[in-house]
Design brief:
single chain; five-stranded mixed beta sheet; 10 strands; about 55% helix; binds 2-acetamido-2-deoxy-beta-D-glucopyranose; transmembrane helix; membrane; Transmembrane 9 superfamily member; transmembrane
Amino acid sequence: MSNHHIRLRSVTIVLTILLTIINQTQSDEHDHKYEDNDEVVLWMNTVGPYPNRQETYTYFSLPFCPGPKKTISHYHETLAEALQGVELVFSGLDIDFKANVAKTPYCHVTLSEEKLQAFIYAVKNYYWYEMYIDGLPIWGVVGEHDETDNSYYLYTHKKFDIGYNGNQIVDVNLTTDGKAKLELGTKLEFTYEVNWKKSSIKFEHRFDKYLDASFFQHRIHWFSIFNSFMMVIFLVGLVSMILMRTLRKDYARYSKDEDIDDMERDLGDEYGWKQVHGDVFRNPSYPMMLSILIGTGYQIASVTFIVTIFAIMGELYTERGSLLSTAMFVYAATSPINGYFGGSLYAQYGGRNWIKQMFLSAFFHPSIICGTAFLINFIAIYYHASRAIPFGSMVAVTCICLFVILPLTLIGTVLGRNLSGQSNYPCRVNAVPRPIPEKKWFMEPEMIVLLGGILPFGSIFIEMYFIFTSFWAYKIYYVYGFMLLVFLILSVVTVCVTIVCTYFLLNAEDYRWQWTSFMAGASTAGYVYLYSIYYFFFKTKMYGLYQTVFYFGHMALFCLALGLMCGTFGYLGTSAFVRKIYSTVKID
Ligand SMILES: *[C@@H]1O[C@H](CO)[C@@H](O)[C@H](O)[C@H]1NC(C)=O
């Protein structure tokens, strides 16, 4: 193939991917409107053990049989759906809008030894399956285990009660029935039945029955928000007190005795943080690493904020995979933010190797995500799970990184270096670094970092419980207003706590505040990870290698993102604080 040809093809691929992401589900259900007797498609999605929500296999990996209808075989899925393991296969059942179907057999399975064992395994492990009609999910259990005589039963009858309002489908109930004993050689007959009923549910409200208001709007949830809010007020008070205390004396002095000797003003009764004015703006160690982490943190914070706003406005949970699509799109689109802040910070630290910094910035977070996903994918392939990422999707993600994220980061970096690459520090940096005095063990940066995460974690951990439960158990998270509040509370708490931490650090005449403030914020994520371990053992019943690796891998990714975000909040707030207090220090 010629070079030109390859380039053309890559461009086409990128365009297709972008279109798929933006143009989410222009699916087969089109506009959700049906005429009488129009075909209504029943999609079989996945089947898997109830306690392991993410361990799913395609429905027909069990020896179920499809119905006689053969029109559509495979659903054209979006990238986000492919990544989330959605694998819709046409059921073959003939369902038409407003046409009742009496109990009708649609296929037979004769139980060979192999099929029998497959079904027994599924029933024993509480397998259940998911189907979709017109975008509405339906769940059913595969079978039942009778403990008394240790026999296994399979449900062979599916009864659909579909509610319609005008020309739209607004409600679906599934009743499974027809218990058939699983024995070698039995011929199972699968049947289905469809009853259409007029319903008064409005189309916009058809997802309401899936939302568990008594869970998500429980008193505890409100109470925790209120609690965190009180904490915010307390912390903001504390920080303002520190600021007042440190600044008041200076202001008083400036206004009173202008003529005091400079030497005396500088050294007189001065102690603690003022002593390190000649070092406090010294570049941190590993400036490139720090600027990469902070640039990425900016990006993650903006993605979280924007996606939460979208979710509040757009009820993203009503479309399969739309939350992930939105997140990926916003992530790619906010790459310039990463480049801008990372690049400008690196320039302020006097970094020269900006091309390396830019590449690392662009790929640091995506490559960790892809690396983890890749590892989990190995196990998924081994298990034949439906979450095994198809090769096409991997190519698509790589293309997004190379052709969207990288150029946008480049633009951001160039802008950042040129527009705000100057370090306008209020104090000069001395040529010789000041030795850091001995201090109490709890004033060491490591301890401060450890302590820094406790309060921010305290302000979010109830929300973490709700978020975890919606991801790892079967709840649809929809209270994004809460999430936005918690996001804002978390940012304020983190900023305040790291400012207080830094104040103590500087008072101990230790000027290494850059990394300390970043890590003090980021340590919140460490506590969240510990909490996730507790959650795994005490709040879920997950088992098996695949689900365990999936859980801890994804939690690690989540905590990494959270850590980068909180670390950035911490650095940001502290940096403003340090500039503020040292701008009042008058030197020669
Ligand atoms: C589905 O079940 C719910 C609760 O039992 C009921 O209120 C609703 O009317 C049912 N819908 C249909 C279409 O039968």
